[in-house]
Amino acid sequence: MLRRDDRGQANLTAIVILLGIVITSVWVWKRLSLDTQEYVIDQAIPLAAAVIGVAVLVLVVVRKIRRRAQQKHRRDRLLAAFQRETVREKKLELAFALAEVNGYRVDGLEAVVPELKELWVSTLRRAVGEKQHRIRGMAASHLGVLQDRSVVPLLLAALEDDHAYVRSCAALGLGRLRASEARAKLEEVMKEDWDQTTRSRAKEALERLTPP
């Protein structure tokens, strides 16, 4: 790693080089004929701009493709680990990580959707201890990823949880599901819940619902 003094020296060198390029460019420009200057302005610069624009577009596409390939690789690796794991706690951790790596979308997870659903539903129902509200909330929000509307009643019930974190996560899950049948309850939560985060989540969920 570069030390602070080295970094400062490198920055100064870069500034000097840039300044030299600018001065040289101005010197060369002033010595060009008027016809050459007009040609550069009218044709060379637009052409260079077009080439740069195409190069930037190609670079963006390549980076996007590369990110998707890396994401798929991480997802497949986590998917294999999830399917091999037998310890419930570790399997639950892998399930949360899997949804996160997949961008909270169900595409690509179809093979394990039933197992994910059972895991998150049972967690939401059974993690009732005072110290387990965070894991319960995570299960509620992740259930919305699966796009399975059969969990809507369970998430509606979670909107009545004693912990605000669970209620806000349940609202997030319903928003991900775009569960229009939860509209009335979400409107009630948005207006009456004492927790500001829960009210905000309910409002966000309502904005994602299908029109009545």
Attribute tags:
212 residues, mainly alpha, 0% strand
Break the fold down into its secondary structure elements and pairings.
Blueprint lengths: L3 H27 L3 H51 L3 H14 L11 H14 L6 H11 L8 H7 L5 H14 L5 H10 L3 H13 L4
Helix pairs in contact: 2-3, 4-5, 5-7, 6-7, 7-9, 8-9
What does this protein structure show overall?
By secondary structure, the chain is mainly α. 76% of the residues lie in helices and 0% in strands. The chain contains nine helices and no strands. Helix 4 packs antiparallel against helix 5, helix 6 packs antiparallel against helix 7 and helix 7 packs parallel to helix 9. It is elongated. The termini are far apart. The relative contact order is 0.06. The model has no long low-confidence stretch (mean pLDDT 87).
In short:
The chain has helices at 4-30, 34-84, 88-101, 113-126, 133-143, 152-158, 164-177, 183-192, 196-208. By secondary structure, the chain is mostly helical. The model has no long low-confidence stretch (mean pLDDT 87).
Number of DSSP helical runs: 9
Low-confidence stretches: none
Which shape, going by the Cα principal axes?
elongated
Largest sheet: none
Rg, Å, rounded: 28 Å
Percent of residues in helices comes to over 70%
Distance between the termini: 59 Å
* Structure classification: mainly alpha
In total, the number of strands is 0
Proportion of beta-strand residues: under 5%
- Mean pLDDT level: 87
Tell me the series of helices and strands, N- to C-terminal.
HHHHHHHHH
